[in-house]
Amino acid sequence: MANIQLVRIDERMIHGQVVTQWLRNIHCDRILLVDDGVFADEFLKKVVVMAAPADVAIEVLTVDMAADSLKSDKFREQALMILVRHPSTVEALVGKGIKITKLNLGGMGTKPGRKRLFKNIAISSEEAEIFKRLAANGVVTTIQMTPNEKPVDLMAKI
After folding, report:
1. Which residues span the domain enclosing 112?
2. Residues 6 or more apart from 132 whose CB is under 8 A from it?
3. C-beta of residue 11 within 8 angstroms of C-beta of residue 108
4. Is the pLDDT at 21 greater than 80, yes or no?
5. Mapping DSSP to helix (H, G, I), strand (E, B) and coil, where does residue 114 land?
6. Per-residue b/e over 42-80, b at no fewer than 16 CB within 10 Å?
7. Any idea what the Cα angle at residue 74 is, between residues 69 and 78, rounded to 5°?
8. Dihedrals φ, ψ of 150, to 5°?
9. What average pLDDT is seen over the chain?
10. In this structure, what CATH number is given to the domain that contains residue 116?
């Protein structure tokens, strides 16, 4: 089984907070950016890989590729950060048998159809339903921008 240190939803993907704070705090060896759209976009994929620090490996994978890799022994000896842009990706991974018990919600900004819940977190009614289903499957989701902030229970805000 994979050694997953952190599963984080952040639409901004790799950025200052992820690189400077989370990676150092959780001491991970590899980032798995799981997003079918980013995987299909060669330019965006290159940008994401270039944004990662040189001492941390990064792979951009589809949901299917990530599920297969996480079920295998491929990353067994590595501490992993799984980074996704959408809650539906987490639900898809859980649906494919990946055990996720903790989920960090770090960045889902405002856009049409979303209601602001907390600081820079806004979700749609469809995304709220996904988070409720994840909670029913044992996934505890907390809002926490940086490791030094106190985690806030997402379900208390929905």
Report:
1. 3-157
2. 155, 158
3. yes
4. yes
5. coil
6. eeebeebeebbeeebbbbbbbbeebbebbeeeebeeebb
7. 110
8. -75, 130
9. 93
10. 3.40.35.10
**C-alpha–C-alpha distance, residues 7 and 80, integer Å:** 9
Domain count, the chain: 1
* CA-based nearest residue to 94, from 70, 129, 121: 70
Look up residue 156 and give its two tokens.
């208390």
Count of residues in the chain: 158
Structure confidence at residue 125 as a pLDDT band (50, 70, 90): very high
Residue 111 CB coordination number (10 Å): 9
Q: Which amino acid is at 117?
A: L
131 contacts: CB under 8 Å, gap ≥ 6: 87, 123, 141, 154, 155, 158
Residue 133 has which token pair?
A: 């289903």
| Residue 108: DSSP 8-state | B
Closest-CA residue to 114 (of 127, 105, 124): 124
pLDDT on residue 54: 85
- Counting residues of the chain whose pLDDT is more than 90, the rounded percentage is 75
How far apart are alpha carbons 98 and 122 in whole angstroms? 26
Q: Which residues contact 39 (CB under 8 A, 6 or more apart)?
A: 45, 60, 61, 62, 65
